[in-house]
């Protein structure tokens, strides 16, 4: 097609005025087919951008296969919060990597639930293997199955609001503080004292052991210890953990020490009068 030399410097905004094409302002005689195509195109004027083809699939107008995929599936994704919410904050949680990875997978609806596996044609049956009543979706698997509800209830999630709604991304699982949660942490309470963290383990009664760590006030490792107690109970293991930890601290000439144990009974026995 021939373009008149007077039109070479023209921009879209010179011809597209108040929402209409002013083809008469061109020296070039446009074929009817091109006029029809231009009339059916959506025009977006932006004084800061050179004339270019763009598309509305993302904010910068640059096409990528990923954006194309999301645009083609926009209707099915529109109800899914994962397409608009960034979950990257999750990687900053002070939690084990395997838990963060699990949550990440869950929030992107990628857990290999039976619903997901049957949707992908890997298995035929999508029923929950625990209750055999409902499809095993992510939400059913982790929140709604009656077998799972008993676990939530046992750790204090009895609020019915928690079990309502079909959007797992709004049920605040991560931010919900359970009333039974206990925090064991390196904390010299702002001082310069050393910190002793101890723990006992036992199949109660059964093979038991203990271990612990001494850190300085900045959290740097100083010393560690562990031991085997043979067959005994958990309280014995917890008490031995504290005893061995204090013994080690004494040998290291540490006199300013915070001792942390997660055994309420052991702490009670040490700090309160005992009725014998
Ligand atoms: Zn179930």
TrEMBL record:
GO molecular function: nucleic acid binding; RNA-directed DNA polymerase activity; RNA-DNA hybrid ribonuclease activity
Keywords of the record: Nucleotidyltransferase, RNA-directed DNA polymerase, Transferase
Pfam family name, one: RVT_3
RNase H type-1 domain sequence ranges: 190-276
InterPro entries, A to Z: RNase_H-like, RNase_H-like_dom_plant, RNaseH-like_sf, RNaseH_domain, RNaseH_sf, RVT-Znf
PANTHER family associated with the record: OS05G0353850 PROTEIN, POLYNUCLEOTIDYL TRANSFERASE, RIBONUCLEASE H-LIKE SUPERFAMILY PROTEIN
Protein name as catalogued: RNA-directed DNA polymerase (Reverse transcriptase)
High-level lineage: Eukaryota, Viridiplantae, Streptophyta, Embryophyta, Tracheophyta
